[in-house]
Amino acid sequence: MRRNFLRPDFRFFFQTAVFIIFVFIFQAVYLPSAFSKGKNRITRIEFIYLMAKYQPGNPLFPQNPATLSEDELYAHTVLSLKSHGFNILEGKDPESSLQDMEFVTVTYAFTGAPAGKSLLDQKLYLKNAGIVISPDIGLAIAVEGKVFQSAEGEDLKRRTHLASPVFLKDRIDTGMNSKVSFSFDDASTLSIGENARVTITKHIFDPDKNLRQTVVQVSLGAVRFVVTREKNKDSTFKVITPSGIAGVRGTEFVVIVEPDGKTTFVGLEGSIETIPFTPEGQPGKAQIISSEQFQEISKSGQASEVARVPSELLQKAKQETAIEPMIPKNRGVTRMQAEMAARVAKKARFANEAEKETGANHEGDETKSKNGDAESFPQVRLKEQSPSGEATHQNKPVS
Predict the structure, then answer these.
(1) With contact defined as beta carbons under 8 Å apart, do 146 and 175 qualify?
(2) For 11-41, what is each residue's pLDDT tens digit?
(3) 3-class SS at 124?
(4) Could you count the other beta carbons within 10 Å of the beta carbon of residue 167?
(5) For 313, phi and psi rounded to 5 degrees?
(6) Domain 138-320, architecture per CATH
(7) What is the pLDDT of residues 181-213, one digit of tens each?
(8) What is the pTM of this model?
(9) Fewer beta carbons within 10 Å, N or C terminal of the chain?
(10) In the chain, where are the structural domains located?
(11) Phi then psi dihedrals of residue 212, to 5 deg
(12) pLDDT the model gives residue 388
């Protein structure tokens, strides 16, 4: 007769411990993969393969894409995109998640639209095609308290929430005990403290040329800038205040504007060039502020000498603009969103080809697509079928 040497209470404890260990192993091994499948973010190579599935006749692909492996197809397409003026995927890991910015540029390229356009122009084009819903230049990655945005020339304010888009010419106002942080398309960020007012005056970004030209106006409050360095020598990032201007290439610094217009520049990393404004609006003497240095400029344009920043001011500059990002800068693209984008990009390419042929022949007849199906493409926002079969004007790969 088999004897059980474990007492009943120990037996219960042992069985419970084994069960807990089993659950832990199950979660560690199976749930992460299940979770990632639930998110279902598409990779770069999967997106190219999807485009090839819907547009085998696109000149960006070889004549026989079906005979190539995924790796060969990806490598060929990256070179082909580069030869057409889109080098956004060059040197990128094909197995990593497709980035939001890459999604826009690659999808734009597969519509047959011309290269040499800024990312904002590409978004505007894709918005008109129904592929993206918002021609924004960035989004809110952290929000605390009450923050509002308003478009140029409009009195209507819209409340800023997590992932809210920010647009060119937007004015941003923060209330008491309120902060917000935005990430631009070029991965630069600005974090705004309480009782502040900031306006995005200019933002041009061309990822294919590594070109960025941005102008931000700080009228009031404390703002921290983390500016990425672009390779193009024509890239600029300028911050304008009531009493001066700061020009940077790639660095981190804080700007504090008092109600009377007095401006304090505090360097955190790298260096910035500051220029005060005279009462007549003329530029004064330029100076360089490096890490842990500061300069004050009065409203009348009187600039102090650049000096080491006092510890109290450095702490104030960091604390007033400190806010923890709450969402990743890259949201990624789901497989369903990518497939809808591939379908609409195909229609947009046919529309572009039809328009070119019509212009060349001076005829208004319908143009046959490459697969022999007769389709007409009116110059309006293209419709797409949702997975449920319902027509929609809002395909939402990214905003």
Answers:
(1) yes
(2) 555 555 554 454 444 444 333 333 333 357 8
(3) helix
(4) 16
(5) -70, -40
(6) Sandwich (2.60)
(7) 999 988 899 999 999 999 999 999 988 888 899
(8) 0.71
(9) N
(10) 44-133+333-392, 138-320
(11) -140, 130
(12) 32
